[in-house]
Write a structure and sequence with these properties.
It is a single chain. With about 475 residues, the chain is mainly α. The protein is built from 24 helices and no strands. About 55% of the residues are buried. Helix 7 runs antiparallel to helix 8 and helix 18 packs antiparallel against helix 23. Helices cover about 75% and strands about 0% of the residues.
């Protein structure tokens, strides 16, 4: 059967965004849109291939690696919450942070400082500032925007992360990239000035915080909601905040908990030591999975002997953390099924064929940025789409005389755009979970800011394409 159905390949993508906007149900939107892809391709015989694809998605090794990390992160975060270590961090920061702008700038700085891993950046930053942001009545949409925007972009800009290793490896395998550098890392270093989108993301955030860029779209509505009702999150995010009163300061809610909760005195070391262990272990072992696993073990060794937790409470916290992350795990599995669906009907090939006639030397970097970015945004496939497109685009760039460094920078920017903008990418899901907000609510709220940065980046690649 023909895997490319022309303009019909856009139906699953369009249906996903329509359903996501109307229902705010991410899993329903993903599954229904993936189902449409299989119906388009297999017609009446769609059922068995679709079920096989779901089974393969559930057994995919790379996807399950991310799922396991998310589940363990849930345990670790819940342990930190139960230990009250995050409250001690908030008490310390409270001495110096006196306004909402200062809280948000602190959030931005944390995202820049913790550049080792995007997951780690999200985890640490959210746990450090969530209490403070709630006290200053910051909508969760705004907090999530800052945390997400300073995770993946910073990991690309400061070249010590899994992103860097992956992309330098992909680019280093291309003979056309040899004109940029004599090794994979040298290639990466030389193309960093052309990371327009990541740099703009990081610079855009303080402009939003300081009000130079006005509040707009979903963020503006979120601030209006807080002013009128005191609710820090929309009603569709209530499930992520069970146990908290609407609009109540999180730290106050904790302090007014049950008598058993009051027995636990906040200790700064209960937060700092496990976090430091995770960071150091991740650096030494070069794998965030090992880092967070060791962090959980350290929590066990610290919290039980010091009577911060009983064994029963420790286990209950781990179960609660797993439960909190089950939604992300299901979304990751279903999104892999959705990716297979749109790959089956030939969406990437269709977009490349449509853009092909415009691939001149001057326009190629800008079109590559838009094309790869849209596919990443539509599929949530942040890693394999750039890896698959690079061997197609670089020979085309070399044959047309386009700038190789600029084209490589556009590919990196496109992947970063997809990671930040896609409603169900791993970093978006992790950011939304850490900020305890529905990922669709957050995804819709950030769209105006994403659109502005994307437009500026596109113009930058157009101008650079004609100049270089």
């Amino acid at each position: 059967m023909d895997g490319n159905l022309g303009v019909l390949t856009l139906i699953p993508v369009v249906s996903f965004f329509v359903l996501a906007f109307l229902t705010k149900k991410c899993i329903l939107s993903i599954m229904a849109s993936g189902l449409l892809g299989y119906i388009l391709y297999y017609k009446a015989g769609f059922f068995v291939p679709m079920m096989d694809a779901i089974q393969e998605a559930a057994c995919d090794g790379d996807n399950n690696y991310i799922v396991i990390i998310c589940l363990l992160f849930g345990c670790f975060v819940q342990l930190l919450r139960e230990s009250k270590g995050a409250i001690a961090v908030g008490d310390l920061a409270r001495k110096y942070v006196k306004s909402e702008k200062q809280v948000l700038l602190l959030t931005w700085l944390c995202g820049i400082i913790i550049f080792i891993d995007d997951y780690l950046s999200i985890l640490v930053t959210a746990n450090c500032v969530l209490t403070l942001s709630d006290e200053h009545k910051t909508p969760r949409e705004m907090l999530c925007y800052i945390i997400n925007t300073t995770s993946a972009p910073v990991c690309l800009i400061i070249p010590i992360s899994a992103w860097v290793v992956f992309f330098s490896g992909v680019f280093g395998q291309q003979p056309e990239a040899a004109v940029v550098g004599d090794s994979a890392m040298n290639i990466y270093y030389h193309i960093m000035p052309y990371f327009f989108y990541p740099f703009l993301c990081v610079l855009f955030v303080p402009l939003v915080i300081l009000g130079i860029i006005p509040k707009m779209g979903g963020i503006k509505k979120a601030y209006k909601r807080v002013a009128e009702t005191g609710k820090l999150w929309p009603d569709s995010s209530n499930a992520q905040n069970q146990g908290d009163e609407m609009g109540e300061v999180f730290g106050a809610a904790v302090s007014e908990a049950s008598d058993n909760e009051k027995e636990v005195k906040p200790h700064l070391w209960a937060f700092v030591v496990p976090m430091a262990v995770v960071i150091v272990a991740t650096l030494i072992l070069d794998d965030i999975l090992y880092g967070v696993t060791i962090g959980i073990a350290v929590c066990f060794l610290l919290f039980l002997p010091t009577r911060i937790m009983t064994l029963s409470k420790f286990c209950d916290a781990c179960y609660k953390g797993l439960e909190d992350m089950l939604f992300i795990a299901v979304v990751l599995v279903t999104s892999l099924f959705y990716r297979e669906s749109i790959n089956l009907i030939g969406l990437p090939d269709y977009l490349i064929n449509v853009a092909g006639p415009y691939m001149s030397a001057h326009w190629l970097p800008a079109i590559s940025f838009v094309l790869i970015g849209l596919v990443c945004f539509a599929t949530g496939n942040i890693w394999s789409v750039p890896a698959l497109c690079t061997p197609i685009i670089l020979p085309l760039a070399a044959s047309t005389g386009a700038s190789i460094p600029l084209t490589l920078g556009a590919i990196i920017s496109a992947a970063c755009f997809g990671a930040q903008a896609c409603f169900y990418s791993d970093v978006t899901l992790m950011s939304a979970s850490a900020c305890r907000i529905n990922n669709v609510d957050y995804g819709i709220a950030q769209l105006p800011y994403i659109a502005i940065v994307t437009a500026i980046s596109f113009v930058g690649y157009v101008i650079a394409g004609f100049v270089m």
